[in-house]
Inverse folding.
């Protein structure tokens, strides 16, 4: 009975299932990146969807190859992505808050505004905006000087 | 061509559609952080395509490419974030 099972076919079917599930998650993440209204919501969609999709695709490949070396490399890639994706998302989200990327108008910001005031993030501005304001101030000074003369 | 290879090619086509959608967001993204996150998804999609290509050609050497690419994508997004984060008081 056990000899009659075609193990290559079983491996192929399980691998195909995992890979199709992962690709569907990647497609959902891409559609979310295109359709969501706000930078922060888009970032959350990408971080979760693409990490899960990539993990499922890699697991499908590890099941198909059926070797310890390949499994080790696949686990290394899954570990790298699941460590680095939240860190990168956190850093980019913090940068976006400090650069005053606008929120969606339906976002509930009641508690977050208190955090912004507490951390004095309102006093920080990005370098480009700093140069812009400096140029504006210099122009005003020039105008005032022109008026006096 | 077996049904296994056909399934893998279908998965590759779907990942290519993902790359196309990400490229649209990369083009119309209103701010720079939008483009950085689109770049993140680019890297993830390319890793998926490399993995499926590895399975299609039975050549295990391409897995190393996926591993290096996952680390370099992290470095790219982090360096972009620190480039945007030049804060002056």
């Amino acid at each position: 009975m056990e000899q009659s099972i075609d193990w290559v076919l079983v491996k192929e079917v399980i691998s195909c299932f995992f890979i199709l599930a992962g690709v569907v998650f990647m497609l959902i993440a891409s559609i979310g990146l295109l359709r969501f209204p706000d930078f922060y919501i888009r970032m959350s969609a990408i971080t979760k969807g693409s990490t899960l999709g990539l993990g499922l695709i890699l697991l499908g490949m590890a099941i198909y190859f059926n070797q310890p070396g390949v499994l080790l490399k696949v686990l290394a890639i899954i570990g790298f992505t699941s460590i680095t994706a939240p860190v990168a998302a956190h850093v980019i989200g913090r940068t976006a808050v400090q650069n005053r990327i606008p929120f969606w108008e339906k976002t509930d910001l009641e508690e977050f505004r208190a955090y912004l005031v507490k951390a004095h993030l309102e006093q920080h501005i990005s370098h480009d905006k700093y140069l812009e304001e400096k140029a504006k101030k210099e122009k005003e000074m020039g105008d005032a000087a022109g008026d006096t003369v | 061509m077996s049904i296994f290879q056909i399934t893998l090619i279908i998965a590759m086509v779907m990942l290519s559609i993902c790359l196309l959608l990400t490229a649209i967001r990369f083009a119309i993204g209103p701010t720079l952080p939008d483009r950085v996150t689109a770049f993140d998804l680019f890297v993830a999609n390319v890793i998926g395509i490399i993995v499926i290509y590895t399975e299609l050609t039975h050549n295990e050497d391409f897995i190393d490419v996926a591993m290096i690419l996952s680390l370099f994508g992290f470095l790219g997004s982090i360096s972009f974030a620190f480039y945007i984060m030049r804060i002056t008081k």
About this structure: The helical segments of chain B are 3-28, 32-57, 62-84. Chain B touches chain A through 49 residues (CB under 8 Å).
